[in-house]
Amino acid sequence: MDRSLSSLPPPRRKAMLKKNMASRRTPQQEAGSSTEQTYVYKVVLLGTTAVGKSSLAFRYVKNDFRESMPTVGCSFFTQLVCLETTTMKLEIWDTAGQEKYQSVCHLYYRGANAALLVYDITQKATFARAKLWLRELEREFLHDEIVIVLVGNKTDLAAQREVPLEEAEEFAKSKSLIFMETSAKSNHRVTEVFMAVACELLKRERQKEPTHQPQPWKKSCVDLQEPSNPAKRCCRS
Length: 237
What we know:
The chain has helices at 10-21, 53-62, 102-109, 124-140, 165-174, 190-208; strands spanning 2-4, 26-29, 37-46, 74-83, 86-95, 114-120, 147-153, 178-181. The chain is α/β, with parallel strands linked by helices. It has a single domain, classed as Rossmann fold (3-Layer(aba) Sandwich), CATH 3.40.50.300. Strands 1, 2, 3, 4, 5, 6, 7 and 8 form an 8-stranded mixed β-sheet that branches.
């Protein structure tokens, strides 16, 4: 499923944005199953125009590649991921990278559970812009509130590389980000990026669940050897 929000009538677009910003996660119990749960997570793709955000989302959801997919405002995709006894529905928001849309992009990533900061490995300026997106996310979210992945796209153009792999790895490590290089064109590690997001989201979900540890037997609060003392009773006739 994919659609361009900018093509929807204003009332419907506003309602859709409000619906997706309403909650950070939505657990649902599957019918007929006592163990399987479904969670809905919002994943946003951020980065400069033409770095391949739309191509990454399209490759992951449709397993197809389109050379040019300009996004107007925001596009929307969904994908189901099954991990262990958990089904996760990823709602993928592909934001436009043009400068004229920057002022409203915060509306799209508000309430997100994960963000992919995408840059083009052949254009140093897009890596710098990804760092600026990270600053914006750091102002919006606490560190443990959102999963952030730094994605260097277009490894199929490695001969034209401007962003060294080591530099990107070092930056991601310094900021505690997941890091991966991909190619939407050659389908290199595209699925792995989204699976890394899903696994980290599930890991954090499990950490939130209360642990049910068996409690040790406690000594009775009533000493049967102690003589009865009416003065200690809580109720008197």
